[in-house]
Amino acid sequence: xxxHPSAPTTPFLDLFRLDxxxxxxxxxxxxxxxxxxxxxxxAGADVxxxxxxxxxLRESAVAVRATGRRALDVPGDVSDQKQCESVVRAAMDAFxxxxxxxxxxGLTHTAPATRELPEDFRAVLDxxxxxxxxxxxxxxxVMRPGSSIVNVASMLGLIKSALPQAAYSSSKAGVIGLTRxxxxxxxxxxxxxxxxxxxxxxxxxxxxxxSDDARADFLxxxxxxxxxxxxEIDAAVLFLASPAAxxxxxxxxxxxxxxxxx
Length: 262
Fold this sequence. Notes:
This protein has one domain (15-253): NAD(P)-binding Rossmann-like Domain (Rossmann fold, 3-Layer(aba) Sandwich), CATH 3.40.50.720. It is 42% helix and 14% strand. It has eight helices and seven strands. It has a seven-stranded parallel β-sheet with strand order 3-2-1-4-5-6-7, sandwiched between helices.
């Protein structure tokens, strides 16, 4: 793969294409992860979707195939290092390469710190932080120069939460630190770019059912004064995964309507 795809001979819009590439998306059975899988496929990538629940994964794979791209659904738990390695092996067996990893699998837990059970705290870190590490480590073993890892953190890794979420906030801040370190280790030596996105509040079915007062609380401090959309987060992830971001690594892109700027 060309490590300098922004050469003047490359048509500009082609920099955002992912034709011939293979992507793995974790937590791809629903929510943002399912959207990321579809967006990557629309840009030309074949996609391996993984997550804990087999049936939603199958539905995500169907959505990828509907774009004309190939898909593989591989159930797996990112908190288990061996299962992460198995997902990557399945991708290599099916497609012969892995070019993109979207570390999206996530778990949240809300509880006052003095009452949060140790096993609940550890479970969040096991998925959000360690899971991102195990998947990145497994993919880095097979990725070629020019590949890209995008870690999905959260604006709560940058700013304080209105709710007691010590485990979640700590894990997402850890993902941002992990991004910087892996970029430093792998970008020059392996040619693998590693970046992060920090989404803000995104329109979901759950948020759509909130009262106006609850939505206002969520949007406090948001410069744009509204929730984000799936496609707006898709666009940021696709950009960082694509050759258009070939000179960006170790960066964290806030996609939160300006909330973290306050």
